[in-house]
Amino acid sequence: MTYLLVSLARGAAAVLAGTALARLADRSADATGLGRIWIGSILLATATSLPELVTDVAAVRLEAVDLAVGDLFGSSMANMPILALVDLAYPRRRSCAMLHPTTRSPRASRLR
């Protein structure tokens, strides 16, 4: 019973923290003028990179440099096919051009 209550409390904390983070991201996007997609992309990239950063720092502290280098290059190689698939999913315009209007290339504007 205790585990159930702890799990429910952690779930509620995650929902509340996620809601607060989304509101803060909206405020940051409005204040900076960067756009919500751009701020969301930065937050997502940070959240998904933190476990790798912690692993690499811990590996270096344990003097397991080969583990740190392997993790760094392995994660980069795993991310490249994902970016390629996203780019292929939008054949008429490049995916990065959707992040902010000022980053649109002339080629992407012609293809619309």
Overview of the structural elements:
- The model has no long low-confidence stretch (mean pLDDT 80).
- This protein has 112 residues and is an all-alpha fold.
- It is 78% helix and 0% strand.
- Helix 1 packs across helix 2 and helix 2 runs antiparallel to helix 3.
- The chain contains 4 helices and no strands.
- The N and C termini lie far apart (57 Å).
- It is extended and about 40 Å long.
- It has a domain of 61 residues.
List the helices and strands and how they pair.
Blueprint: H1 2-32, H2 36-61, H3 65-89, H4 106-110
- Enumerate how many helices there are, as a single number: 4
Mean pLDDT across the residues is 80
Radius of gyration: 19 Å
What overall geometry do the principal axes of the alpha carbons give? extended
Oligomer category = single chain
Helix content range of the residues, please?
over 70%
Largest sheet: none
What is the terminal-to-terminal distance?
57 Å
Kindly name the structural category. mainly alpha
Element-by-element helix/strand order = HHHH
Summarize the structure.
The chain is mostly helical and 112 residues long.
Key phrases:
extended, 112 residues, mainly alpha, 4 helices
